């Protein structure tokens, strides 16, 4: 059984602390949502594991949400189904209960990735979708120049694409998901062309990696980036990103196609 924090959060991040303003910064992005919708195909019943505040749950399908954090369950909008308090590693559903299942920005926090993926595969008749970051591509983001400790934390936490594929019976496609300039889902790379936003404490708090580094790193980051934005150093090196329509970062959609 996964370890649980006081608010019920499972895995390594305590969303009772970092998740209080999560929904303010982490709004589903329409561009990313289209990748998920396409991969879901004509599935009608969908399980969302580690559902959080409900990002990317399709409104026109029958969705069952699982979320262990009470703080995150409380932030789900009223029009979404109430989330079940459970963890990926022990899903309370019968075999083959759903047409498809999905997990977005969550697998890096599971205490047992293989068990969680096996459970998703067990309860799903069709595709299993995993939206996550490729740890080998995290250093494409300029944050590596200012807070390499944060990038290193993410690289340790994110599972390799091959590992996820193996957990999905070895029958998975890895689809790169470009990030748009005005991405509304505020994970780190969403601010590739809007560096000022990452100076906001709330924006950093909505990215769990910052909770795994000393507060002094955040202070140093704010001081260094503020200075470089003021004197033009950041723009001299990265200013072209401010108008780049899409950024090819680490974001990937891994789609397990199901049993043949």
TrEMBL record:
Pfam families for the chain: Methyltransf_11
Gene Ontology biological-process annotations: methylation
Keywords: Methyltransferase, Transferase
GO MF entries: S-adenosylmethionine-dependent methyltransferase activity
InterPro entries per record: Methyltransf_11 (IPR013216), SAM-dependent_MTases_sf (IPR029063)
Domain Methyltransferase type: 47-125
The protein's name: Class I SAM-dependent methyltransferase
Species for this entry: Rhizobium jaguaris
